[in-house]
Amino acid sequence: MDLVFRARRVITPQGEIAADVGVVDGRIVAVEPFIESPNVVHLADDEVLLPGLVDTHVHVNDPGRTEWEGFETATRAAAAGGVTTIIDMPLNSIPPTVEVAALEIKRKAAANVSVDVGFWGGIIPGNLADLKPLHEAGVFGFKCFLLHSGVDEFPAVTKAELEAALRELATLDALTIVHAEDAHTVRESEPDYPGFLASRPREAENRAIADVVELTRKTGARTHILHLSSSDALHIIEGAHRDRLPVTAETCPHYLTFTAEEIHDGQTEFKCCPPIREAENREALWQGLREGVIELVVSDHSPSTVELKAGDFATAWGGIASLQLGLPAVWTGARSRGFHLTDVVRWMATHPARQVGLESKGAIEVGKDADLVVFAPDQKFVVDKNALHHRNPVTPYHGRELHGVVRQTWLRGKEISTTHGKLLRRGEA
Ligand SMILES: [Zn+2]
């Protein structure tokens, strides 16, 4: 063995066990009671060994809007937060990842990364012919919007355009991920939070999700609902599961942590689309996780500059920065509701890896990459936005007390201290 992790608490697909985790050439080769090795990493009594998280929803914004984030800062933040793999969204970078040439530009921009990085492609009006080449070039699937995306170079598709794309992608068995808010239901926002919330009602999500389910049924393509906020749509997704349609859903740490009632005017660090809703909605989302209707929790890390994030709720950038904080935020909410770390690992590592076909990621078991996190679940800390690795110090978690400290992050058997992440292609990892 090159290395052995010895822990009283190891989170495996079979549950929590005491074990030694043996590593050779960056892969897990044994999970057993006792392994002889000269190199043993002893976990302390208050530490748990988790698989590295897989965050399939990250906006790195590089190249083109590198002042918003960037591959070096984003992947450093990911590593510090226990995330060992990210899949980068196709928009907010310039150019957006809607053709192979743009993907190659992005791969060059991601020369120095601390964690493993994969890429989503994008569906926009007119790029139907680019989807197959992007798929073959190794993107993990395709994102589209059903309403204005927030940036003009990544336009939304109509329902008819989405249907055409799904027919094409069904032939490739490629995954389509959808920002599901209905363009005809969303209105202009008012400057205050109640006005912003009312402008993007649950009905906008419910309608768009019903459309995605209908098109999934029609085309047979695999689809995924991004950042679910409206708990009213849970029964639509549940119905799709009952009908055995290939539809999955994710939600995000902020929808599970914050409530509309606590957001005051001017606190635009809380602005995201779809919006954070009422306390009762938040509890229904936790229930959706409990019942398995929602299978993934991913960050939707979508930062901007401090200037663009300021102002009022009508004008500020809509996106929340939380890549480094997703694990403690979700664990804090989960533990207070009686969930176990095995649940958090399933939502944030195992299911996201499975979703994008990363067979070597997402669990502590023989054959997987030795992507490992030493986590102290009972240690508390207060979030200081200035101490995070995100490029811009804006986050709604600032000043909040969270449970769970990431003490070490290991990528393929090496503790992350330098940039030795690699770029991933669908089907190869
Ligand atoms: Zn997003």
Automatic annotation (TrEMBL):
The keyword Metal-binding applies. This is allantoinase. Its EC number is 3.5.2.5. Gene3D superfamilies: Metal-dependent hydrolases. It comes from Lentzea aerocolonigenes. Keywords: Hydrolase, Metal-binding, Purine metabolism, Zinc. SUPFAM superfamilies: Composite domain of metallo-dependent hydrolases, Metallo-dependent hydrolases. NCBIfam families: allantoinase. Belongs to the metallo-dependent hydrolases superfamily. Allantoinase family. The lineage of its organism: Bacteria, Bacillati, Actinomycetota, Actinomycetes, Pseudonocardiales. One of its GO terms (cellular component) is cytoplasm. Homotetramer. Its cofactor is Zn(2+). It holds the Pfam family Amidohydro_1. GO terms for biological process: allantoin catabolic process; purine nucleobase catabolic process. Pathway: Nitrogen metabolism; (S)-allantoin degradation; allantoate from (S)-allantoin: step 1/1. GO terms for molecular function: allantoinase activity; cobalt ion binding; zinc ion binding.
